[in-house]
Amino acid sequence: MVTVDRVPHSSLHVSKPTWWLESRFHFSFADYWDPARKNFGVLRVLNDDLVKAGAGFGAHPHRDAEIFSYVVAGQLSHADSMGNKEALPRGCVQYMSAGTGVVHSEMNEGSETCRFLQLWITPDRSGHKPQYGSSVYNKADRHNRLLQILGGTGEAPAWPNTAKLHSIRLHQDANVFVSESDPLTRFELSFGPSRQAYIICIEGGLQVDEVQLDTRDGARITGRSDSDSSPFVLQAGPSGAHFLIVEMGKAASR
């Protein structure tokens, strides 16, 4: 059996530092510090952001982090010091390996509030060459299946009903999947040895074994032992489920 540790959305830190931003932090970030929520394996940041139209995060630096954003609503515009600039809508992903250093901005240049998830993964080493990538998807790509949007340095899990379309390569042994599933759609999954996952229910409801996740809830999923490969079940709720999974090794890279 696996262990499912629910992270209710009511327990997330809500940051409203300015009129245009509302963020929910799954892990310690910025001025929020909780020693029990520093990271989960190599997953260091998971922020659920709402950015009002005509505003956003101006140019700022990063280094030695694998950063990606998954757009839920509206559109997100990215620009960086490598010369990349584009705006992407719902269901698309923007990825940046900050490596030795890069400056970027994330703006909402659209007319409606933009909701996006931003995740940071600790790289396998410092000093990578900075790089940028993006992938454009439509609902059919992730409908009632697991769409792999980012791959890593190791093998992806051999889960059933999985699609891999233009997935971006992370500098880490981690894999990221999304799904937008109809009511009661069911997935039976299992881990390899010493693997774990973090799930966020983006919209709708999702049952993970016997644990119910509501909109914006997260969950930490681990095996009972390093050799545990027991199956577990994901099932969309009566209104369907839009969710994201980060699958990774148990040990942090550094």
UniProtKB/TrEMBL annotation:
Residues 18-121 form the Pirin N-terminal domain. Residues 165-226 form the Quercetin 2,3-dioxygenase C-terminal cupin domain. Gene3D superfamilies: Jelly Rolls. InterPro entries: Pirin, Pirin_N_dom, Quercetinase_C, RmlC-like_jellyroll, RmlC_Cupin_sf. Belongs to the pirin family. This is Pirin N-terminal domain-containing protein. It comes from Volvox africanus. The lineage of its organism: Eukaryota, Viridiplantae, Chlorophyta, core chlorophytes, Chlorophyceae.
